[in-house]
Amino acid sequence: MTTKRTIVPALAATMVAFGLAGCANWGKSHTAANGNTAAPKSTAAAEPARGPVQTASDAAITAKVKTALGNDELVKARNINVDTVRGVVTLNGNVGSAAEKERAISLAKRVEGVANVKDNLRTAG
Description:
CATH architecture of the largest domain: 2-Layer Sandwich
Order of helices and strands: HHEEHE
Number of domains: 2
Number of strands: 3
CATH topology of the largest domain: Histidine-containing Protein, Chain: A
Radius of gyration: 23 Å
Oligomer: single chain
Distance between the termini: 83 Å
Largest sheet: 3 strands, mixed
Helix content: 40-55%
Structural class: alpha+beta
Number of helices: 3
Shape: rod-shaped
Strand order of the largest sheet: 1-2-3
């Protein structure tokens, strides 16, 4: 009985210590050498890999944007490819007019979770 009474608190303390150590390392890895916590200016290759939560979130944003485009009368959604990375939506494809292009961009910007929209749409003609 005495062994169980000492092992459980020791195990709990060890788990808390490991959890705090992980949090401390995360904070250090996201702080610049000068202590500045602003986002570092880097290229896409230097950015950390996306985790499963970010990937799922991006997939949900993509689905919402495609739905918004598909439900619109003006936009021909079948001609527009939607990609999302870290909340930044990229629209690729061909549209029939400048009005359709502007409408597609506007609809994408309205979707919850969209940080920015990159326009790679080409107007026919």
